[in-house]
Structures are given as C-alpha cells and as structure tokens.
Recover the amino acids of this structure.
C-alpha cells in the first residue's frame, strides 16, 4: 500500500479522494492555487503545497509544478481526480517516468482513448456498435460532403480530441455542412490544439447511458451497472441516475459485454466509463471512454456499495480487484444532481462570490459531496460546480421523493445556484415518468425568467408513497 499520495486537483473531488486515503491510513498532499488558499481540503490533508496563481494554466494544468510538488513531498503516487490533467496522457507518462504511480489508466491507454477516432476504431475492432460515420478523420469540406451523402443527413461534426460539446456542429443539409465545417475545425483547433474532425450520423435526442467498469493488472474486468445521464445542457450533465429507468435487461447485458470487450482489447487498467447513446428502439452506439473517475461516480457507489476511489488505489498498487462480477448486486435507485453556482433562469450565468449562509441536507439515503461552507468565496477561475447531492432509496419513486425533500432543505445563500431548477425538474411530468432525452433541458427550461411557479412548466404532484 502507498504511504503518501499527492492529489492533483481541487474542490469536492480533492476532498473526496482525501477521505478515502485517510481511511486507508495514507498521508495526503494536496496542491492548491492562490485562489484556493481557503480550501477546506488544505486543513484536512496531511500536507499542502501552493503551486501557483489562480489561472489554471499556471497551477492545476502546470505539469512541471505538480511534479515538482510531488517530488518535494516524496509522494509515491498521484491521483488526478477528474478534469484538469486527469486524461492528459503526457502527464500520466511523466508521473510514471518520475517513478511514481499514476492512479488511473496507463499513459498509452489514455492516449488511445483520448482520441475519439482511435477509440472508435478500437470499438469497431472489438465488435462494439458505433454510430455510422466517416472511416477515420475528414480532411476537407468535399470529403465531408461525400461522407454525409453516403450516411444521410442530419450529421454531426466532432473534434477528435473534443469534449463538453466543443468542436461539435450539426448539419441538416449540404448547405449547412459547408457553412459549419470550417467553424468546427477552427473551434477544435483553439480548444484542443488539434483541428482534426470526423463525421457521424446525428441521432436526435437519444438517451445518454454509460457503463462504469474497473480493471486490474491481473486481467479482471468488472462492470458496475449503468448510469443514465440524459438530463444535460450543452453536453454537460446535470442529473445522473442508476439504473436507467427504461433500459431493457437484455440490452443492459449487451452493453456490459461490449464494455468488457472494449476494455480487454485496449489493455485498460483502473476505473473507466464507456459512454453510449441509446435510441428510441433501444439500439446503443459507442461514444467514447472516459479514462478517469467520473463526476457521477457516487451514483454507482450508492447502488453497489463499492468505494471506487479505494479500488482505484488498490489496483494502482498491483492488487487484484477485491470483488468478482458475481459479487456486484445493484440495490435500489440512486440519483445525483450537480449543484452549480449559476443562475439557471438567466441563461445559466455564472455566480461566483461569497456564500453567506450554508446548510447541507441530510437524513436517510442522502449524501452531499462538497467543499464549500458558510463564508467560502467561490472563485471565478474554475468550473462552477460547488456540490453534488446524491440520494439512494429502494425504488426510483422513493428516490425522487427523497431528492425533492433534500433539495427543499438545501440552503445556499449569497450566490445563485441550480437548486431551483432541480426543484422544477423533480416535479416535472416527463422526469417523474422517466421520459427524458438529451434535449430535455433545451426543450423545457432554456427559457428566460422561468420560475418554479411558471405556467410554462407542466408539473405533477409528488408521487404518493
């Protein structure tokens, strides 16, 4: 077992990793920027090291500063959390070259999975269904038009190194494809320093379903069920739940088998998530593998009882997984909402500033992962997520009731948050009945000055228990 781990992240995930490390009697070194000098994780970690000013490029994305901190602190391993450098193959390689363990997949696997075109080729080779599209990268507009004519409109242009909806454009005909092709490449070049793109058939308003898996160095690969992440805005997830309310058991089995085949063929080790889209006929298509711990991992932890961070650490030490596939028995229903410091009724405008009053909900089946507190000042330099509220109950109906109650208890004053939006969603007919897709937010909540009492929203009473 490691004795010292450096946590190369901030916010709630740094605190989350710190908690498991301390339970394993592992000393922790947390890095922080000048903007995070009041981080609660600094107080709870064994040691803390400032790695630079507020801009992430000079702190949390600066590989040399993080490696220097790890070496100064005699860290044996580095946990990257999610975001920042967590899927940076170069960072993983440098950690490995420095004689430390990277708590995640090997650098060569991250490189393969980080390239969407390469990942699709791996998926095809493993027999995993993929969305019809170009056979590799599309070099120019004429080639794009040729591919689109073959697979049929609408099509979507995607950046091969993309994420979060950047470098993505939908074309419904040849005219729109001509106008957006160069835009997509330019955005990809700016965002990812690589303007390579490919084209896929656009599947309108599918469900977004993902399979959590973990693999060790002994050839064991275990899937831990699925998460439905269909409620999202601009390709950023807002609500995640497990199990998916509509997924047929036979389709779930095929998705899990496809995920294992893909993980095996790529030489995957550690935790990962295979993401798929699911159409109305329950056909599923591979999207990508997130080669890291997911934001929504607590949903899986709640239904399986598995501490994913603990398993990540054990796998990184070379130990086999502490469970077999037959040991995984998903129980009940879990739902997570991401609490963002944004004004959902004002175009999701960011709302940094000081939290003047804070009270987190509790009670049976309620978990809050957060690093904020009364008096905490939310910096404007980073992602707006300040907390994750997760609930677990015997059934989906009970889980929705628990979430509704927990949201009514959650008090965050001084900044705007997405809590009012979630109060509406959890009383919305389509969500309560499980009839949502990736266009749910755009269709029903992307209207200015919508309030919880607005007649525009179709509401239902809370389900009777």
């Amino acid at each position: 077992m490691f004795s010292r781990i450096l946590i190369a992240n901030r916010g709630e995930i740094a605190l989350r990793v710190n908690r498991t490390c301390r339970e394993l009697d592992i000393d922790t070194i947390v890095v922080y920027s000048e903007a995070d000098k009041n981080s609660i994780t600094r107080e709870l970690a064994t040691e803390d090291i400032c790695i630079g000013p507020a801009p992430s490029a000079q702190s949390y994305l600066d590989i040399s500063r993080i490696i220097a901190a790890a070496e100064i602190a005699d860290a044996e391993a580095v946990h990257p959390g999610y975001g920042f450098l967590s899927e940076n193959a170069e960072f993983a390689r440098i950690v490995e070259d420095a004689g430390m363990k990277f708590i995640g997949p090997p650098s060569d696997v991250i490189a393969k999975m980080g390239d969407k075109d390469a990942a699709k080729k791996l998926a095809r080779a493993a027999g995993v269904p993929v969305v019809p599209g170009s056979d590799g990268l599309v070099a120019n507009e004429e080639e794009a038009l040729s591919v689109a004519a073959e697979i049929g409109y609408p099509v979507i242009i995607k950046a091969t190194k993309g994420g979060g909806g950047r470098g993505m454009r939908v074309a419904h005909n040849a005219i729109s494809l001509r106008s957006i092709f160069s835009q997509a490449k330019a955005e990809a070049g700016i965002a990812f320093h690589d303007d390579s793109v490919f084209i896929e058939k656009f599947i309108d308003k599918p469900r977004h379903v993902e399979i959590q898996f973990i693999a060790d160095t002994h050839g064991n690969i275990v899937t831990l069920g699925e998460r439905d992440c269909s409620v999202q805005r601009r390709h950023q997830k807002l609500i995640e739940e497990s199990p998916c309310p509509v997924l047929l058991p036979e389709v779930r089995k095929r998705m899990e088998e496809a995920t294992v085949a893909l993980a095996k063929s790529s030489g995957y080790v550690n935790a990962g998530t295979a993401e798929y889209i699911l159409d109305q006929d329950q056909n599923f298509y591979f999207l990508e593998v997130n080669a890291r711990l997911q934001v929504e991992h607590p949903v899986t932890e709640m239904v399986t009882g598995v501490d994913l961070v603990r398993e990540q650490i054990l796998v990184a030490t070379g130990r086999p997984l502490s469970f077999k596939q037959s040991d995984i028995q998903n129980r009940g229903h879990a739902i997570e909402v991401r609490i963002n410091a944004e004004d959902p009724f004002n175009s999701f405008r960011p709302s940094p500033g000081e939290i003047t009053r804070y009270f987190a909900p509790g009670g049976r089946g309620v978990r809050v992962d957060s690093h904020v507190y009364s008096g905490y000042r939310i910096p404007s330099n980073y992602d707006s997520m300040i907390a994750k509220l997760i609930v677990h109950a015997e059934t989906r109906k009970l889980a929705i009731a628990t979430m509704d109650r927990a949201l009514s208890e959650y008090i965050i004053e001084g900044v705007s948050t997405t809590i009012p939006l979630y109060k509406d969603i959890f009383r919305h007919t389509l969500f309560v009945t499980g009839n949502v897709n990736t266009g749910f937010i755009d269709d029903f909540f992307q209207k200015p000055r919508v309030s919880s009492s607005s007649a525009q929203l179709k509401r239902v009473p809370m389900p009777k228990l």
Observations:
- Residues 447-458 have pLDDT under 50 and may be disordered.
- The longest strand covers residues 221-233.
- Residues 56 and 89 are 18 Å apart (CA to CA).
